[in-house]
Amino acid sequence: MDVLTRRRFLVASGVVGATALAGGAAAYRLRDVLATAGDGDPRARTLVLVTLYGGNDGLHTVVPHADPAYRDARPDLAYSAEEVLRLDDGVGLNPALPGLHRAYGEGRLAVVRGVGYPKPDRSHFRSMDIWHTAQPDRPGTTGWLGRWLDGAGGDPRLAVSFEPALPPLLAGERGAGASVPVTERETTPRLGAEALAALGAAAPGESPARARAAACFADLRAVDGMVRQVRAADDGEGAEDDGESAPATATGGARASLDAQLDLVARCVEAGVVTRVFSVSLGGFDTHADEKQLQQVLLGQLDAALSRFADRMGRTDAGRRVVVAVYSEFGRRVRANASDGTDHGTASNVLLLGAPVDGGLHGEPPSLTDLDDGDLKFTTDFRDVYATLLERVLDTDPGAVLAGWRGRLTGVL
């Protein structure tokens, strides 16, 4: 697995450059976004885009367990009908996705099948470049949401990324979205250092129980300080010669947990900020070997984070206008390799989650026998998904962003 820094990943994509840098992505903090609290349109919907870097295996996310060709292609990796979380008689969700399975049963999860683009590319960088720009023939220098941002007024806070570097999809021609560090997530935002120290200090005349509680709190603060020092030291040792301290691989993805990223998204939505688009990510899906266990761990993280977020969003009017879209740069090949894994493939699923979503299975599932050199043939163009999100969530004309594209998903939003 080739190791690169995030900066090199962005440079390799060919999208980010002077435009994104001019947008001042790194100059924003959470307080800058929260400063717009109450300024958002209370009737507007919000898009949360979740990128799964590395090429998530769609056939082991939405499993066609009843298809004999699936078992024939993956005799040692295939899930049985008893293992999956049933959607219908033919397909089921990976067993690591119980929260999303519940959402499906409640009509809040749509599974869009066979999503891809013409002449697919199996390179992480090139394929993600295509997904970010929505220009499969010849990717340009702007992202599809960056172009939307240009037309929406250009305020970077309209499109916020909680990833360590601005994703190319938020780079416009005249500006870019805001990249906000997740390190600002705090469990006790109202207590300063002095107040926290006082909680761990002994007080004259206090009871033995209170003294023990104070001592325990002081110990916890000391351990937390040591952990922070170790992490800081690891970051310094891991820095590469281009100055980027946060390591990444071709699988990309933010270092902070998806749960932490979505926690900040939830805070912003509940505060009523002006932001209409949030970008978050989870990496590690390049499962060339020992896929079954690794993907279950990653999908378990995805499921837990999305389930908590969706449940939280269901408690407020603003949250009930949120739509989450989950995608990856490509799926995996149909046939397993010799290392109990799968190699880079083509078409996969896009998941849409939220109260505005008309749940269920959407789109035609690609054939597992009528293949393109061993890969799935896409049945839904990814620009249909983007056009639907632009029109139904962001209230904008998709043609202006997607070069006149007319395709749409039907019955999803």
TrEMBL record:
It comes from the Bacteria. InterPro entries: DUF1501, TAT_signal. Residues 235-244 have a biased composition (Acidic residues). Residues 233-253 are annotated as: Disordered. PANTHER family: BLL7424 PROTEIN (PTHR43737), DUF1501 DOMAIN-CONTAINING PROTEIN (PTHR43737:SF1). This is Uncharacterized conserved protein, DUF1501 family. It comes from Micromonospora humi. The lineage of its organism: Bacteria, Bacillati, Actinomycetota, Actinomycetes, Micromonosporales.
